[in-house]
Amino acid sequence: MRKPSGLLVTLMELKKYQEIAFYDLLLSPACHSLPEIVRTGSYWLYHIHIVDKIFRAHLCGERHGFTSTVSDDVPELRVLRQEAINSNDWLIAYAGSLTADTATEGVQFTFTDGASGDMTREEILLHLLTHASYHLSTCSPSLEKHKLSIPPMLLTTMLGSSRGYGL
Question: Structure pTM?
């Protein structure tokens, strides 16, 4: 079977790159005296992780057991960071395992609110990237307010760092 382009893999690598940069910022000394920034960032990172787990279950045809995509019971940030690495590594490998046929295969599922969903496997992966990017970008104004550097979010930045040129 013909493999799809490596673009899905690259997009999942970008998702991981963005998230880990946010984890690393929140765990850095710059944020030690900013508990509200860490709390808010952790909340959104956990929400992203929950949604990733839900859609991973959809991709695998398994039950996920979540009744909501949010939780105030956020795990310790270092533990959550490692779970996010593992989850993103799975998504990268999954994207790499898809063929042109399986990438466009439909997946039917039920959202946590009970609504029916129907997306292709590649649409699910793209949703996970855009969902994570959206929530991470909403944290940027708070970071700027506290004079923190916004973690890298752009594909060109990721590609530039992996290819040895600065952008």
Answer: 0.93
